[in-house]
Amino acid sequence: MHCHPVSEESRHDLLTLRDKARRRGDECLSILLTGVDLYLSIGKEVELLELMRDYAEQMREAIQGTPSANELEQLYHWNPEKDQE
Fold it and tell me: What pTM value is reported for the model?
């Protein structure tokens, strides 16, 4: 089941309901609502990871063959006069 996007108001209401259940001593409902919140939070993380994976695939071709950080540092510190000696 896909439950995105989740509004901040909906999430706030869910946490409020969970807290009310806990205060009245209904631990089972409180745990269940905590699980729903966890599911929604993990869903956001998984969605972000998928976006990052897609972006990495798209960028692979663009950055393939470009110099590494070490190569750029060597180029930055390169002294052509020293090489001619």
Answer: 0.53
